[in-house]
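Subject: two folds for Thursday's group meeting

Dear M.,

Sorry for the delay on this. The cluster queue was jammed most of the week, so I only got both jobs back this morning. I'm pasting them in the order they finished. Each block is the input sequence followed by the predicted structure tokens. Could you check whether the formatting survives your parser before we put anything on slides? The first protein is the one we discussed after the seminar.
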Amino acid sequence: MNANLMTEYEAVIGLEVHAELRTQSKMFCACRVVDPTQVEPNAAVCPVCAGMPGVLPVVNQQAVEYALRVALALNCEIAPTSIFARKNYFYPDLPKGYQISQYEQPLASRGHLTITTSQGERRIRIRRVHMEEDTGKLTHVSENDGTKKGYSLVDLNRAGVPLLEIVSEPDLHTAEEVRAYGMALRTILRYLEVNSGDMQKGVLRIEPNVSVRPVGSQELSTRTEIKNLNGFRVLERAVDYEIMRQIECLRSGGLVIQETLGWDDLQGVTLPQRSKEEAHDYRYFPEPDLPPLVIEQGWIESVRTNLPELPAERQRRFQSQYGLGKYDASVLVADKMVADYFEQTVAAAPGVSTKSIANWLTGELFGLMNQAGASIETMYISPAGLAELLQMVGRGEINQSIAKTVLEEMFNSGKPAPAIAAERGLRQISDESAIAALVQQVLAENSEQVAVYLSGKETVARWLFGQVMHLAKGQGNPQVIRQELDRQLREMKDRV
């Protein structure tokens, strides 16, 4: 991003986020929701989601409740009555020729989400939260005969899956803010257990609407929409590129065209797909086969009462209850499974500092998971297992260095820490007489360095400490070694 150009122009960005809801069945029919990567194409299709004539949709109550959870978590106002509408457009993966969505009267509106960036906290307004059905999926196949011919395959397993669209106001101004918003929203959806957050599978798709204007201007300029971004790195790169593309276009005297864009991650560029539609292009009208959706206030309050502890609340609690800093707490609560794992480890490890547990979890354990491509749910080490390892360190049975070796073996084999330490002879040496003998041997074998120490260069003691640890094969108790080394060196100094 060219900082000089950003002093002349300001980006104005709004986000549309499409989140599939984790219901058992589809939005308007009884077909089961399936993982398209695990089942045959078109295995979960019926006359309703296939758009056959004469069939009638029925609203999925669970999908409505999930949508209410999200809307309330985003501080939205819930409409007592909302209307489903037909959004008309033809596309091969939309079998009916229209999509059932909400337009003029959505489920919820006027909410907000607070994000944190390097510039501090910002409140981003939520314009609307509405329900709709997802489309099918197209797979384009090219012939390999050099003719550039090809064909497209349609999989309707995803057609009709409940979809929640969350639309922000154009309150975002940088790619960093866009990424922070997307990540914060994804975390909330996962805490609410309404969406897995697995962007690679397409269950969460983000579409930024980007425009730029001279700094100081309050007018909204022509915008472009980047479709179906399925990763935060991709999201940030695409927004950064599109901001600079529009600025350079305006600086050269050109005009930004309102259009829908795709993102080519290999080339690192946005590419035109089609002209950007306006609402009237879709010819919205109320869905004649569905009555107005009336939400009773008692249902709203019941959903509100049963909302789980949300990430922002949990972060504040981690700071106050466990004495963690803001950064450590934010890292832990960013993933609900990680936050749960931390609290379960704390409960299983009385006497171990919460800061130490946080450090081991976000440092050593995260490192092992990243290296192996594993997750907190799939790895072998349970919270009780990590607690047992850290309690062994606290009791002086193993030192920090050995504990890291044991942790890696636990991660790879699933064996408990005491068994690994016993099998590999890794128990820490804390016996005072054994350590006294090791210190005595090191001092006897390194008389020149001892003489330097006695002459006044006391920093040599650190080197001697390292030699004792080496002689103990890393299994010596550092505290006992340090005390015994200091004692023997003092005695030698007193005799000089």
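Second protein, same layout:
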Amino acid sequence: MNPKVMIWLSVLLSAFAQIFLKHGLTKIQAARSGESSLSVLLIGVVRQPYIWLWGFSFVVALMLWLAGLRELDLSYAYPLVSIGYVVVTIMSAIVFREKVDGNRWLAVAVISLGVVLIAGS
């Protein structure tokens, strides 16, 4: 697989992993019914499939990152991590219906421009 593709997949999978984590924790919160003990939280984490999906996603993302980074300059690859901010912001607005104000969308636009400039180099 092309090293650039591996880096991009790693970054995207890491961003989606954050969505899985938030979704899993939200489900745990809803199921806990106000209990706040650490043991109840830990049991909920172990039983929550989205938490497992988060962990699996990060392991695969790490493997892709390592494989891609062997072939690419760090100065190219690392700034691409910032596209995760863009993906998480967009997915948070869609999946969780989070309110994203104009300043955050402006920041997402600036980050996106930076990623386009780096990816084109």
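Two things I noticed about the second structure. Residues 93 and 100 are 7 Å apart (CA to CA). Residues 3-119 form one domain.

Cheers,
T.
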